[in-house]
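User: Design a sequence. Structure:
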């Protein structure tokens, strides 16, 4: 059986004007407070919602009404924003 021909094609290298300027190695790691704060916000948000539902909408703040949901979900969204910055 005849041997197939080997392709002698050079490896593609992108032009220098297209390459990204900052590489992943030059970026600094995230500070230690960032993941701790994000996890604390997730726990606080879930805790706020659980207390709100289990107390039949009387706690944490009864006068806020359904804004308690916004506080709980807002804390969790804030943690997601922080976690998007984590390296």
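Assistant: Done.
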């Amino acid at each position: 059986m005849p041997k197939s021909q080997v392709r002698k094609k050079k490896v593609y290298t992108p032009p220098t004007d297209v390459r990204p300027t900052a590489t992943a190695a030059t970026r600094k790691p995230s500070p230690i407070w960032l993941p701790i704060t994000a996890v604390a916000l997730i726990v606080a948000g879930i805790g706020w919602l659980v207390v709100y539902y289990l107390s039949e909408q009387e706690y944490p703040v009864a006068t806020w009404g359904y804004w308690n949901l916004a506080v709980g979900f807002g804390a969790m969204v804030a943690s997601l924003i922080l976690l998007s910055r984590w390296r």
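The chain is about 45% helix and 0% strand. The CA atoms of residues 33 and 76 lie 17 Å apart.
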